[in-house]
Design a protein that fits this description.
Two copies of one chain form a homodimer.
Chain A lengths: L4 E6 L6 H14 L4 E8 L7 H6 L25 H4 L6 E8 L6 H8 L5 H23 L15 E5 L14 H4 L7 E4 L6 H14 L4 E7 L5 H10 L15 E4 L6 E3 L2 E3 L3 H8 L1 H32 L16 E7 L2 E6 L4 E7 L2 H4 L5 H17 L8 E2 L1 H12 L8 E5 L2 H19 L9 H4 L7 E5 L8 H4 L20 E4 L3 E5 L2 E5 L15 E2 L2 H4 L2 H4 L3 H24 L4 E7 L2 E2 L5 E3 L1 H13 L4 E4 L14 H4 L5 E4 L11 E5 L1 H5 L20 H15 L7 E3 L7 E3 L5 H8 L4 E7 L2 E6 L17 H10 L3 E2 L6 E5 L6 H20 L6
Parallel strand pairs in A: 1-4, 1-5, 2-3, 2-4, 5-6, 6-7, 12-30, 15-16, 15-20, 20-23, 23-24
Antiparallel strand pairs in A: 8-9, 10-11, 11-12, 14-25, 17-18, 17-22, 18-19, 21-22, 24-25, 26-27, 28-29, 29-31
Subcellular location (chains A, B): Mitochondrion
GO molecular function (chains A, B): adenosylmethionine-8-amino-7-oxononanoate transaminase activity; ATP binding; dethiobiotin synthase activity; magnesium ion binding; pyridoxal phosphate binding
GO biological process, one term (chains A, B): biotin biosynthetic process
Chain lengths: 827, 827
């Protein structure tokens, strides 16, 4: 906004929020600064009208008077402050939603039968603030850049809440939750009464834990020494991102407020309140000065953040030379699926859909995010970290238990924790190879493991071309050679796999078809082309397993394994010890849905030969594709599988490698040498585990997650409803600029024709810049996507409202249609 | 404790905490259950005596009476409840610290000049509760096992706080912080007044964020609908470790409390309060039933946790077959350096020093831990996670800025984030090798990087034997062959280094000596033996660099590099591209202090040949060894260095790879292929970054960290004072069972003679069980250590009070002396 805006919160009811607002408005008037006071929710109206009191000049005789400042104000009205007009001293004020009953807003709304949704409150606050800042911005001809220098702001706006920080909004939700997306800087009015140290500090912590910046605490004096105690505590209170120079929160002490008395026919203050305001004049002036300079510093930090980032940070997967300053996005906060992004153009925070789900981690919509945050904060307070070996703590058990009855149900019995998908996969392959050694008799018994160690062969894995398992060397070695694995990137890379080129499944022109890769296992795929109207048919294993294509797949895999066996026998090549696959969908490889019939055939062929099956569900697992375990979609159980990303719902890194008891047993034995000697310092750290346990429950609980539906066919497992509208996806797939669409679970991926993007990228694949241009168009529509080569994708959470997805997919369709119609000069 | 104990907290003052305690005491009496009521801190005494009211029978006529229950009660007295005696109905009560003034305890303490330290309050509460539970346990002959079945508990104890949850203790600290180490389950008395929804919910959140379990909320009714709103919110409130069946917190609604009136000469309740207690009888009975069954469930969970752990978890670096049930430690919580450990013997939570600093991560004492928790919780609430490439958020900048002005000062300009030390080192070696390629002209210019890619040679690193850089394959490849790298553990291991055997430095019999390794660079080390009285002399580079030993070191390293160059030239062996070393101290390798003169010589030799220097400061960095950057101790700056563990102070995983601008520049160029294509989903996640920023400030701020001293010699950098008493270390090093001692910064490591431990382990090294037995002795002294082979070590935090260290090192000395005296049958 073009003028500093603060939200005035109370540590309790009747602590003098409106008096503080009035004091600030008068301080603004003394500086000839236009001030806008907004009361989004008011009860007891119009007998009580805080907006009235704040905007009224001192000519009125008592505070008991009730005349609305301007004709525009009405109960529940939506008139604008400008329409309402200014009161005395250049102060505008406005009441947005009002009820006559002098009770809490949630009760008033219920009793009077006029509810207001949280989103309506948010929308109204945003609209009113925008209108005012536009108004003062243009009227005073001050550009917002004045905020970054020494010049005066164009105005100041105050949003005053009702009651205390956790008092209910009209919907019944807490006000501090309802207003969170705006993250307006907070001025907390402390509680001067006995007990007020506690209520003030608890309120401060409640605001801080929701990510609000608390700019200042202001308290009127009292006999019980509250100010001193609060000031002491607040002066050492650390906030996020404050840096060294911005520690502590200042406390402003006001004179004691006069007792309320009967004035006219109501209880209130008489003219003595103006004396009190005069007494507090210096304090209010100092508070306003502090708040506006705090705001200036906030803006300065956001404006300079890109420069500092370009100077000190080193981003992953980013060519800094190809990242001009204007490409750097300053993220102020997150609320559910949306980023709060600082826009230098509007000098405001704008909400933008995080289309990449922050590298595929985000699992919580706004409402549920609170549950995860709470879990993190409670685990931090209770434990910090706890070293794991031979120790047990509740969150570690809890997260494991949820995993074993969730994605691990019916197959896994053990959970090994590590820090990310890459480490989870390194652990997984160690586990699988040891299991192979035991199964095949290389290690005849646990007691003989050490003796056998010197005679263990070098081994390989069977893997799929285009799959990705992480960036550490062990996982890179499981990838087929690519631009990521060359000596420029991974000097010690050595391919440890036999890599099959898998067939993919994609919606093309409204129909799901199997695409055989060039130089793939089925050259040409002649006579075995397959296609269906729905995705369900493509995943109908009972029918498809009987097709010639399925048999051809099995033959291809068997031939590859036969060849490897012969190579091992005849040439001493490392034998294949395990199957390693990304389950169902290759994520980083380009959102390629692998033909599930091919993956089934591969698993079955490997299992028939006694090879352990390792699935990488880091991307696909934990509801990503609509099922809790991605393996469920294949109808085949792994021996080892890895989970991360959605596992913690989008808060903290944590990965799990789940296994069968047979795999665990392969590491038992008399000595430590038999054990799995792998671990990281923060293995199973309580914060991560507590969040993972909560996230898994959140996805699975039908009382929390509205997207759950029962799966048919007598299976008691739940599944996600379709999140991305299939009709819209079909329409997109029919656009001439679109090669194909992949839509499953939380994933909507659109492969563009290589010619899209003006041929600048060309050739598709990683180096393509095709999708990049569409991404820029979407950004203007408040959607922040990140392309994967020529693949444009959007990722929602398992808890995202499908209505939201519908709006998003329509935006995508619209932008792509413009491209398809060729009427866009940019192309 | 042998009887369920709860802490009664108030959402505000005057919400009826004592009435609730009384109601619970009466409910206990109705079940003939002994009840102990403890008021640790009372003001306005003896006019006000909550203990008096709770224990008094109903025969007294008014609540205004002030007779102390028993003669033992006196102001600030320390008499026991048993001495005080029981009031009516089998209820004991006791007031521990009391002041006459009816103001907040911090004010009363100040005004009356009788302060009480937090530790005194804690000690008193613990002592009183223990005495009571012993008393009822033995008197009633009920074993604590009755708690796990359907039988009744032996008694119930209530600890009632003063004021609200955040009201100050006598010391001025918040009561909820002071009592945190005990983590007594909380009963929160809600606030029925207008505004009480907010104060109750904020208080609930404040308790939960400190890791308290909130068992129940209890509120008296009021006209403002508080109970309904609180009940609604609390019913969806998730706590840590609760599991699926234990979601939500129940709210118990009591009848409205009668108004206070003037009774006798004070304001209070008359006999009508007993009618109110009678009206609430069913509620109190239900609350007591709920609380005791909640307690039973808590105990059951802790008792079964080892079984569940052994059934479902897979610990890192642990042979499960060698982990009997009794070895499994149930960690209830952490407070500063101490674990709260569930002891099945006493059925209580006992504090135990976390001697391994939870795998070398812990940086905060109790007081500072709050700062880190606050940072974590605020970042969680504000951001959750934010995808990093091309994005910037305040915590990422903040943590980088702190690192660059701290451990990276004067050399580093860039920070690359990853998840743990292992990934940080994988990134570091990729960076160093690319830098080598650029320096040596293999990549002539950024534009030609892609063309050059096909002609880049395979390379090796120069590394030290016995060093450890993590468990992922890329870091394993930098380790010399060992039990960790065999095909049993790391099937794809391929040593990528030329490994030098380094000389070590250790205190032996009170003197610091250099130990040349067998088959090391200086066979025999004849004529070059070195030793000093103090560690400072061993680190006096100016003097030592001129010694023949230093010159011999340099010659050894040069010879190794010459040989490698010749091997590359003549045999096409991979050339050496970088130096990779753990800085100063080999941690996992056995707490071996490497002779700093040798590391200096190695760095200088490599730098002279244009080889980038990679330091692994994951263990040694961030104040571990007394300096913020461990490289400071060597007086040599790296090109790349890695930080983790203490970087986040012991809360969450996060690692940083810091580099010079030259290294960063090696990845610049026109295309993405030049960039560093490495990243993890949660790279630079805000929670981790916010904690890292706060932790670094915490260590470095002399107002927070009392252990900082100025370094001499005109260096403006600070250092840690000696934490482990050197005299005591010297005494330990002189014990016959001790081979040598390493004491530096936070580290106290004691290498035992191989014969110690009954020769069971034998041979020292990893497989030794020598230290294990001493560890068991220390556990009985509330010290939880974890041995590294035959090395026993204790690790404190950079903020640990040296007085605490002194007590600990004395315990170690005592236990080892017993061993040395040979008068212990266990040996």
């Amino acid at each position: 906004m073009e003028c500093p805006t603060f939200c005035v919160w109370g540590a309790n009811t009747a602590v003098g929020k409106t008096l503080v607002s009035k004091g600030l408005a008068e301080a603004a008037a003394r500086r000839s600064l236009p001030c806008f006071y907004l009361k989004p929710v008011q009860t007891g109206f119009p007998d009580d009208s805080d907006a009235d009191f704040v905007a009224r000049g001192r000519t009125a005789t008592t505070m008991g008077a009730h005349a609305a400042v301007a004709a525009g104000i009405e109960r529940g009205g939506t008139s604008s402050p400008i329409a309402d007009g200014s009161g005395g001293d250049g102060t505008w004020s406005h009441t947005e939603f009002a009820w006559a009953r002098a009770v809490g807003p949630h009760l008033a709304a219920r009793e009077e039968g006029r509810g207001v949704a949280d989103s309506e409150v948010l929308r109204a606050v945003t609209a009113q603030l925008s209108e005012f800042s536009d108004h003062v911005g243009s009227a005073l001809r001050l550009s917002f850049t004045s905020l970054t220098g020494d010049e005066r702001p164009s105005g100041v706006a105050l949003v005053e809440t009702a009651g205390g920080v956790c008092s209910p909004a009209p919907s019944g939700a807490l006000q501090c939750d309802v207003l969170r997306p705006l993250r307006l800087p907070a001025i907390l009015v402390g509680d001067p009464k006995l007990g007020g140290i506690s209520t003030t500090i608890a309120s401060l912590e409640t605001l801080a834990a929701r990510g609000y910046d608390v700019v200042a605490i202001v308290m009127s004096g009292s006999a019980c020494g509250n100010v001193d105690a609060v000031e002491q505590y607040a002066s050492e209170f650390n906030q996020v991102g404050g840096g060294e120079d911005a520690r502590g929160i200042p406390t402003f002490a006001l004179p004691p407020v006069p007792e309320r008395r009967i004035v006219g026919d109501v209880v209130g203050h008489g003219r003595e309140i103006y004396e009190w305001l005069d007494d507090g004049r210096d304090v209010f002036d100092a508070l306003l000065t502090h708040a506006t300079s705090w705001h200036r510093e906030r803006v300065r930090k956001m404006r300079t953040a890109p420069d500092e980032a370009l100077r000190t940070l080193w981003w992953p997967f980013t060519q800094h030379d190809a990242t001009p300053r204007e490409n750097v996005t300053v993220i102020d906060s997150r609320c559910g699926e949306d980023f709060g992004v600082y826009s230098p153009d509007s000098n405001a925070i704008e909400l933008r859909f995080d289309g990449a789900a922050s590298w595929w981690t985000q699992g919580a919509s706004k409402a549920e995010q609170t549950r995860l945050v709470r879990a993190a904060s409670a685990a931090a307070g209770r434990y910090g970290h706890v070293m794991f070996p031979e120790n047990v703590h509740a969150p570690a058990l809890d997260a494991a238990s949820e995993l074993l009855k969730g994605a691990g149900r019916d197959w896994a019995t053990r959970v090994f924790y590590s820090d990310n998908g890459s480490t989870a996969m390194e652990v997984a392959v160690k586990m699988a190879i040891r299991t192979y050694f035991v199964r095949k008799g290389f290690i005849p018994s646990p007691e003989k493991a050490s003796d056998a160690a010197d005679f263990l062969p070098q081994v390989r894995v069977l893997a799929l071309d285009g799959s990705y398992h992480g960036d550490t060397l062990g996982t890179m070695d499981m990838q087929a050679p690519s631009v990521f694995t060359g000596p420029l990137q991974t000097p010690w890379y050595k391919p440890r796999g036999i890599f099959l080129r898998p067939p993919t499944l994609q919606m093309r022109e409204g129909r799901w078809v199997v695409i055989q890769p060039e130089r793939g296992p089925l050259p040409g795929g002649g006579g075995l082309a397959a296609g269906w109207a729905t995705r369900e048919e493509a995943f109908d294993h009972e029918t498809r397993d009987e097709t010639p294509l399925a048999k051809a797949y099995r033959a291809v895999v068997d031939a590859a394994l036969d060849e490897a066996e012969a190579d091992a026998k005849e040439n001493g090549a490392p034998p294949v010890a395990a199957l390693v696959m990304e389950c169902v969908l290759h994520g980083a490889g380009g959102m390629d849905l692998i033909d599930p019939t091919f993956q089934r055939a591969t698993i079955q062929a490997c299992r028939a030969r006694g090879l352990p099956v390792v699935l990488d569900e880091v991307f696909a697992g934990i509801w990503r594709l609509g099922a809790e375990g991605a393996w469920e979609l294949l109808g085949e159980k792994p021996d080892v599988s890895c989970y991360a990303k959605l596992f913690t719902g989008g808060l903290t890194p944590l990965a799990a490698t789940a296994t069968t008891e047979e795999v665990f047993d392969a590491f038992r034995g008399p000595t430590k040498q038999n054990a799995l000697l792998h671990g990281h310092s923060y293995t199973a750290y309580p914060i991560g585990c507590a969040v993972a346990a909560e996230a898994q429950r959140m996805y699975r609980d039908p009382l929390i997650n509205d997207n759950l539906v029962e799966m048919g066919g007598g299976d008691a497992r739940a599944a996600l409803r379709e999140l991305w509208d299939e009709h819209a996806a079909r329409a997109i797939s029919a656009l001439p600029c679109v090669k194909g669409v992949t839509v499953i679970g939380c994933v909507l991926a659109i492969e563009l024709e290589d010619s899209v993007g003006g041929g600048g990228g060309g050739g598709g694949g990683y180096s393509s810049t095709a999708a990049r241009d569409v991404v820029l168009r979407l950004r203007a529509r408040s959607i922040q996507a990140r392309p994967l080569g020529n693949v444009l994708y959007l990722m929602c959470a398992p808890t995202t409202d499908p209505a939201r997805c519908y709006d998003l997919i329509r935006e995508v369709w619209t932008e792509l249609s413009i491209v398809a119609a060729g009427d866009d000069d940019d192309w």
